[in-house]
Amino acid sequence: MTNANAQSMDAPPSTSTERGRAARARLLEAAAELIAEHGWNAVTTRRLADHAGIRSGLVHYHFESVQALLRQAAMSRVSRLLEEAGAQLSEQRDPTEELLSLLDHFDGADATSLLVVETYLAATRDPVLNEQLVAELARFRSALESALARAGNPAPGATALVTLAALDGIALQKGLDPELPTDDALALLRGIIHPDRDGGHA
Questions:
Q1: Domain CATH number, residue 18
Q2: What residues contact residue 140 under an 8 Å CB cut-off, 6+ apart?
Q3: From start to end residue, where is composition biased (Polar residues) (predicted)?
Q4: Does a structural domain hold residue 199?
Q5: pLDDT class for 198, splitting at 50, 70, 90?
Q6: How far apart are CA 71 and CA 160, in angstroms?
Q7: Of the listed ranges 25-34, 93-102, 154-163, the one predicted with least confidence
Q8: Which residues constitute the domain of residue 163?
Q9: Is residue 201 part of a domain?
Q10: How far apart are CA 188 and CA 131, in angstroms?
Q11: 70-96: b or e for each residue (b if 16 or more CB lie within 10 Å)?
Q12: What is the DSSP string of 160-178?
């Protein structure tokens, strides 16, 4: 039975339900990759189908619209990213270095950074996406605020907002200019996060 189960796990989807789930998963993966590669507005039904390796008619069979597909694909990636980062923050007494090290992983030109930028822009025109993104960002800011409060920051809410805005901006600038020096900017952020330490800013 063990061998049979192992074989069934490796076998291609055999039922219509399994095939449908597999097609949806391929479309979501393709959508996330295409958003980062070509930009939100350049993702078409044909491009999605070709990238996912399925018939174009299945795009609208599984999703009510291309926009709905893009929205779900983007928010799935963004939500996972923020959840993982939030979990890391919750484990740290002092979140400073964990937070600032995000710039080592996301330089503004990587696929995740590009997906996030495209999602931010699309959310200014899509009320449903805007509501979803705002809720996810609020949860992450709340996690950061709690971490900053544990670390002794005197204004954790405002500091969380300023820090995240600064990190977004630095990542965007690095995407435009990979050689941009950031050490002084990160030192300034450390001073904002810990104004009571030597070299901090009041």
A1: 1.10.357.10
A2: 82, 85, 86, 164
A3: 1-17
A4: no
A5: low
A6: 26
A7: 93-102
A8: 2-193
A9: no
A10: 32
A11: bbbbbbebbbebbeebbebbeeeeebb
A12: HHHHHHHHHHHHHHHHH-T
